[in-house]
Amino acid sequence: MESIRLFKPSLKPIETKVVDEKNNGEMKWVRTKVDVDKHVVVPQVDEQNLHESPDKFVENYIYNLSKTTLDKSKPLWDLHLLNVKTSDMSEGVAVLRMHHSLGDGTSLMSLFLACTRQTAHPDKLSTIPVIKKRDINPTYQYSSKGLWRYFAPIWYFMRLFWNTIVDVLMFMATAMFLKDTNTPIKGKPGSELNPRRCVHRTVSLDDMKLVKNALNMTINDVALGVIQAGLSVYLNRRFGEGKKDKGATEKNNNLPNNIRLRSSLLINLRPTAGIQALADMMDKNTEAKWGNMVGSVLLPFKIALRDDPLDYIREAKAISYRKKNSLEAIYTFSISKLLLKLFGIKITSSISHRILTNTTLAFSNLVGPQEEVSCYGHPMIYIAPGSYGQPQALMINFQSYVNKMNMVLSVDESVIPDPHQLLYDLEQSLKLIKDAVVERGLC
Question: Which sign does the torsion angle of CA 140, 142, 145, 146 carry?
Fold first, then answer.
């Protein structure tokens, strides 16, 4: 196992948080040495299971892994190497499990990229994608002629102030009493204790870019529109179970009116948007700090069937644009830090848990390497992030890699028994949206 030995760092003592058995099981920081052999797992693979379905074997392995927790007596991560050839032409699968207390998606992806090199140029680091922050108010132009250049700043700040006040109040209401509609995908009490089924589907990032450029939006807006379309189709089917199928149209469907369905969306609050260089994040004098530097945003979805597939995208763009004209993420991050200082981790965690419980799903969208990369000589075919332990029954992750986009679902099967069907609905929604753009000559 030469590839495993390559992962060995020096055994320099570091600090890790462990359970203090002598003090009622409370957590404390101690100095420890990292022994990689205790973190790497290479399970024995049943050849009979592989002949039946290698993909299903990997899926079940991760499902069973989500039934367990990380050993708190050592640094909170482990690496599982599965010698399994899957249908996507991969020679093996590596499952890296890390506790979210180690960092947010940006931190962990930065750490991963630091361990990779370009496949075509093994001596070069993978490209660090940098997302330029767009102007959240295109109509706000100081260079405008006439009186508008004087009124534009006033209008901009008034709208920003109003949107922020409304969003923060809605966030506080959600923490206290405001719940989403009880739909077939809404998590049940105790859902965070259930194991998770993680499934993924790779689609074309170029297709998403085609829609993005045609409708003047971001990849994130396209992802939100695809989710909105896919969930509408899926929920229409679930609400229609046992009923006669009369066709699914905008005016004839099984969806209740005025469904409140929201996603908790984590926003990177670092000075530079996108993935950070690991060296920069480790520098004590930089503003791009390691850790969980994210704010929470409650993103509503309009659940309704649309005869025009582009309506899903337009609605998602409007919702996203509205959220960009708000400081909700900054205020929720600041409120969380204040609560942590005043009341401690337990009460703050309880409030956060209540907010997640009152919403329906979680969503994230991370940018990956822009070229094919290898990890210690092993070419990467795809990256599929997921998580478990959250109270929502559904989490949707979008992860780009070169010219591919991976849609990853982490579901509680007691609530969503057919995650592959939901994946198919998302994939077909993207196809319908792209086809509509092409047919109308918008690209």
Answer: positive
Which stretch of DSSP H or E encloses residue 200? strand 197-204
Q: How far is CA 373 from CA 93, 111, 121, 286, 376, in A?
A: 15, 14, 9, 27, 10
Beta strands in 101-155 (DSSP E): 116-118
> What is the rounded (10 degree) CA torsion for 307, 308, 312, 314?
-140
User: ∠346-333-108 over CA atoms, to 5°?
Assistant: 85
For 369-420, give the DSSP string.
-SS-EEETTEE-----------SSSEEEEEEEETTEEEEEEEE-TTT-S-HH
End-to-end Cα separation, the chain, in angstroms: 49
- State the Cα–Cα distance between residues 10 and 12, nearest whole angstrom: 5
At 413, list the tokens: 């099967």
User: Has 353 been annotated as catalytic?
Assistant: no
Q: How far apart are CA 323 and CA 170, in angstroms?
A: 13
Two tokens at 114? 């630091």
2 phi and psi, to 5 degrees?
A: -60, -35
From 100, 121, 378, 420, active-site residue: 100
d(CA 421, CA 410): 13
- Choose among 359, 404, 434, 24: nearest CA to 173: 359
Q: What is the mean pLDDT of each successive set of 10 residues along the chain, which is 443 residues long?
A: 32 54 65 84 79 85 93 86 85 90 82 87 80 50 60 87 95 95 94 95 95 94 96 95 77 91 88 63 67 87 95 94 92 90 88 94 90 90 92 95 95 96 97 96 82
- Helix axis angle for 205-215 and 310-324, nearest 10°, is 70
Query: Would you list the DSSP string of 336-347?
Result: HHHHHHHHHHHH
